[in-house]
Amino acid sequence: MKMAAALEQLEREHAAIAAAIERFALQAVQLGAGEELAESLRSLIVEISMHFGFEESLMGEGGYAGFEPHHRQHLAMMIELGLMLDRVEETQAGTQLARNVDFIGQWHREHIEQADRALFEWLAQRAELEKAAVPPAPT
Ligand SMILES: [Fe+2]
Asked: Is 121 inside a domain boundary?
């Protein structure tokens, strides 16, 4: 995949996930813990997991030096989401639910500002290299 296209896709996915987290936060307030909210959380987990997979495939292809710590952040988030799903499924989330939801939103914002920003800079450099490597069009 061309790096410029990968960057655009990452931007789109980050915006989509931020919106999905906001929608989920609203549902958490409206529905409370239970099967309906669990179903919504499962969808959010799939979306986030696919996004992490995409980021990690980009890092892996290009030999990104910060792969391991970035991957560990993703892994920690997947564990948090899994624990949260357990609580929501068991309808034992109670007042913890709002804190969990806040945590996900906060984590996503901080992750984008730090780990993902470093990844973006690296991808942007590679996009520039790709552009420079394209031979001039015949005249
Ligand atoms: Fe990331």
From this structure: yes
Tokens of 49: 């997991």
Q: Nearest CA to 99 among 112, 111, 87, 116?
A: 87
pLDDT tens-digit series, residues 59-76:
998 889 999 999 999 999
Give 97 Cα–ligand 1 centroid separation in angstroms: 24
CATH of the domain at 53: 1.20.120.50
The residue range of the domain holding 33 is 3-131
CA of 7 to the centre of ligand 1 (A): 12
On the question of pLDDT at 113 being above 90, the answer is: yes
pLDDT exceeds cutoff 70 at 134: no
For residue 138, how far is its CA from the centre of ligand 1 (angstroms)? 39
8 Å CB contact between 120 and 10:
yes
**Residue 138 within any structural domain of the chain:** no
Q: How far apart are CA 28 and CA 26, in angstroms?
A: 5
pTM of the model: 0.86
Contact predicate 55/70, CB 8 Å: yes
- Work out the pLDDT band at 42, boundaries 50, 70, 90: very high
